[in-house]
Amino acid sequence: MTSSGSNRLGEFEAIAKLFAPLAAKEPGALSLTDDAAILDLPFDEDLVVTVDALIEGVHFLRDDPPATIAKKSLRVNLSDLAAKGATPRAYLLSLSLASWVGDDWLTQFARGLGEDQEQYGIALIGGDTTATPGPLTISITALGSIAKGMMIRRSGAVAGDCVFVTGTIGDAGAGLAVLKGGGGTLDKNERAALIARYRIPQPRSALGPRLLYIASAAIDVSDGLIADLAHIAETSGVRIVVEAARVPLSDPFREMFGGDDEAIIRAATAGDDYEIAFTAAASARARIEGLGFPITEIGRVEKGEGVVLLSRDGKALKLSKPGFTHF
Amino acid sequence: MTSSGSNRLGEFEAIAKLFAPLAAKEPGALSLTDDAAILDLPFDEDLVVTVDALIEGVHFLRDDPPATIAKKSLRVNLSDLAAKGATPRAYLLSLSLASWVGDDWLTQFARGLGEDQEQYGIALIGGDTTATPGPLTISITALGSIAKGMMIRRSGAVAGDCVFVTGTIGDAGAGLAVLKGGGGTLDKNERAALIARYRIPQPRSALGPRLLYIASAAIDVSDGLIADLAHIAETSGVRIVVEAARVPLSDPFREMFGGDDEAIIRAATAGDDYEIAFTAAASARARIEGLGFPITEIGRVEKGEGVVLLSRDGKALKLSKPGFTHF
Predict the structure, then answer these.
(1) Do B92 and A141 touch (CB under 8 A)?
(2) Does A141 touch chain B (CB under 8 A)?
């Protein structure tokens, strides 16, 4: 673990000691006392690597619980690994510390990471701590592994495949709406469930590696179901047709927004779901059901390009949200 | 390559396209169009991984040339890999973009990365782009590889070893002093040479992998020669004695500060040298000379703890710089 920022050096050494227990189980972390870390991968596996940064005021608020911020920072990366079929192995933490961050905050942040390390079987192996005059910025690089050559890509969808998605869609967006004062008809538990979906992603880490040899293409749903399927459509060179009526919605979401086309458009363009959208041959349906995870078939892959969301009467719904104008 | 920051999505897709040529030679980068990248390591090698963040106003200034900022961001990481004996393989770029960053800046930044990729044989394999309300923040995760189990650690120094350092020490600090108006007696070329040492690190990437089977411990000199040797002393559980008269100084540095004990203390505590300090058995001296790199023997490893800088008359010099008070 390295650090910089001139006169705060002693402080940063204390921080390195605070994070050292998170590296205790991974020999390659060298207790965070070296310039670099070592990862000894099995000879028949590829490294799968991804990075995501979260910024105060953009991805979280200063007053959010530090453990929640820690978990969100780690889990957005775990979600990427899961969508690729990879098993999490280790991560590096690049922390740009705003002046308001104190010992209490850091202790709770480290506790949040520790809890998730237990849950997801991943360990801290390195990092960098720097003082910033700006907002707190957390950049995590997650390292996973997968059988050589088997990473599930965005580019493998072919015409004739079916389209699937895990869990329910739109809950994180609904959670944000609740935080902004919406959801007056919901009871306390329903509100809490939606807010939890917004605050702490639940990456599909247990499912991801089981999609190997099943999914032809996959992506984690972070920008929004339609936008993310558009990435698969573009890299695979196909058209994806989603039937609005099949998009899985949670009970609290339906309670809040109903289930008509407008509600489904809201869900499918809201983002932050951290579910996995994937394509697979129709012949894989039985195996997918046999996995025992909540997975819904929502559409099909055709020749062509782009993503179409079909209403119940078979018409293409108009998606006007900024950022999706190219559909 | 992922991106976030709401309404700048279209802009970030343009940025991903700008960086895509930097990933063209590395198949595992998947043209930066997937959630994660793949690195297929040789079966007999370990992954060596390190991360460093550079922040506007802390590590560079807004007006610094973008290509210089790019190279510094990459090279501080390459220096870590070199000190570990690792061969650079690939890197991930986490970019938190301040609002003042425009297309021109990004184009020049990408050009700087491209030039260094050619020079150091490394390729971009993934990244994340985010809008920040704060300073431009660049976090790079560098991936290298090394024969399994052979990474050179900080912890391998033993009593009886000799201490070596590459190149010359203190030039980056002197370059900063020149930028602040010092160095009036230097000619233009000398000033330029020192400033270059400050602005753009020259990592010892060609040497690093050749120190395998030679160095017992190594570290890149970034905090300052004495501070970094103290890291080796601490993790190895030894005492390191450096003879001030043997610390290698450049001609421009001597021209500016002379070569007395005070000048040497300045050099050995200045930081940002990005040379490699390492320990090796006395029996390795001939092989070290045979490497054909500028390497100077500067001291010895003893039983005990801490780092001592000995003056010509054998007295321990007092080092009062903040951050070094524990010696």
Answers:
(1) yes
(2) yes
Would you say residue A324 has pLDDT above 50? no
B129 and B169 housed in the same domain: no
Within this chain, do residues B130 and B184 fall inside the same structural domain, yes or no? Answer: no
Are residues B186 and B115 located together in one domain of the fold?
A: no
User: Does some domain include residue B27?
Assistant: yes
Given a cut of 90, whether residue B294 has pLDDT beyond it is yes
Side-chain-side CA neighbours of B277 within 13 Å: the count stands at: 35
Q: What percent of chain B has pLDDT over 70?
A: 94
Give the residue numbers spanning the domain of B236. Answer: 162-310
Residues in chain A closer than 8 A to B154 (CB atoms): 30, 33-35
Looking at chain A from residue 230 to 269, which residues have their Cβ under 8 Å from any Cβ of chain B? 231, 234-235
**Model ipTM?**
0.92
* CA-based nearest residue to A309, from A235, A252, A224, A200: A224
- Asked if residue A271 belongs to a domain, the reply is yes
Same-domain status, A77 and A15: yes
d(CA A52, CA A55): 10
Query: pTM (2 decimals)?
Result: 0.93
In the predicted model, what is the mean pLDDT of residues B276-287? 98
Nearest to A139 by CA among A201, A74, A83, A78: A74
In a domain, B320, yes or no: no
Mean pLDDT of B152-158: 97
Q: What is the mean pLDDT of residues A284-296?
A: 97
For B141, the closest of A92, A154, A235 (CB atoms) is A92
- CA separation for the pair B259, B326 (Å, rounded): 25
